[in-house]
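Usage

Read records sequentially. Each one opens with the input sequence:
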Amino acid sequence: MKIIILGAGRVGQSVADSLVSERNDITVIDTDAERLRDLESRYDLRGVVGNGIEPAVLAEAGAQDTDLLIACAAQDETNLVCCKVAQLVFNIPKRIARVRSTGFQRDERLVSTEGFAVDRIICPEESLTRYIGKLIEYPEAMQVREFAGGRACLVSVRARAGAPMVGHTVAEMRSSTPEVAVRLVAIYRRFPEEPDRFVACAGETRIEPGDEVFVLAAREHIAHVLATLHRRDATPVRPVRRIMIAGGGRVGLHLALELGREPGRYLVKIIENDSARCIELASRLPSDILVLQGDTTDENLLGDESIDEIDLFLALTDDDEDNIMSCLLAKRMGARRVLALINRRSYADLMHGTQIDIALSPAQAMLGELLAHVRQGDVQAVHSLRRGVAEALEIAARGDRKTSRVVGRKVSELALPRDVHIGLIVRGLPDAPEVPDAPGGAPDAPREPQVIIPRSATVIESNDHVVFFLPHKRLVRDVEKLFRVSATFF
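and closes with the structure output:
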């Protein structure tokens, strides 16, 4: 696929890093020549210096035969105008824009073909807020990713010594609850002086304390999965109620506004160093959210605000070092769980799952929303995992036995690459076409979607949504090719 990326900032670099590795033809436009030279030295892509809203610059970037434009420059206005020029002058078929202002999403006329011609708006703050919201809902999880409209989830959890299934094999975990729609798909194990190593989940694989375990499950079973791998006893997990946010920037404000939508549910404090910003925060946030001026790494301030009673400490400033240091300090002073927003991937890799419970990259949180538009075939959802190395993919099976390599076939008959793990099948989703009623018969009542754990003899039906775990992104194309419908396949 031929793709133009407008903007070589943090988001643009992360998008380029992910898409280049999938053998796409990438061109990046930016006004900063030095930044483009750095990208060209690290990745197999082409840089074009200039303003992306100018037709001549887009033409130099190859807009005449481009398949996808991803506009992720710093300014909303630049991204919107670029999409309009791409549609009017070059007729680029698919256009995605990063837009922070929420007003454009509320009024479809603004982004329609007659407006700015944006096919999909991506808002980093909303992506991060949704992601953090799931971690608040499931406080034992390190990651929570949704599939099939939220009916199924992929969660990762740190296996804890003494938990019911830790020390047991994958086969024992399956046999203990055969009726529960749960599939363990990957283990990442830490070794001394080495990065976490992927461990395939065969039946004899034993879950060890400290493992990061990835599990696919129906939504209603997530709490059970987390309990069996992380909780030492049957005591109900304490819900997240007391939250402290370090940093009142865009992300901190957006999250605080969302938490404030349910008055009384959360006790929220937000710390911001800039006095003018504190005044703005206080004027925009509900009155029960406490805004404090101060340094997020001030030990005395954290102590005075009872950091030892905080259920979740969120460091969301624009400074990676401040976020890391404030989280380490909060954890040492008794905060139950800490999350740091970290832009540098190398920092995130070092800190994730150590003293810092969760190291979250802003670009990775929204990358899946972009990847779903790049994938071939009928891809429904994509989630980038392990800092872009692994991926979870939801793809719909279409066609019939004559036109598809998967429909009407058993799971054991699928020509899947060796390391690809099929996790769940969701059957009966409402996007499936309706089956005509039998002549003279009464219309069938709509079926509730069903989450199925695939076995060797499970047959894939048309319109099934199949969720895969791929430990290496290079396997994506093989899965997409397998699910592609062909009029000539027999």
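Summary fields computed downstream for this record:
- The chain has a mean pLDDT of 86.
- The longest strand covers residues 182-189.
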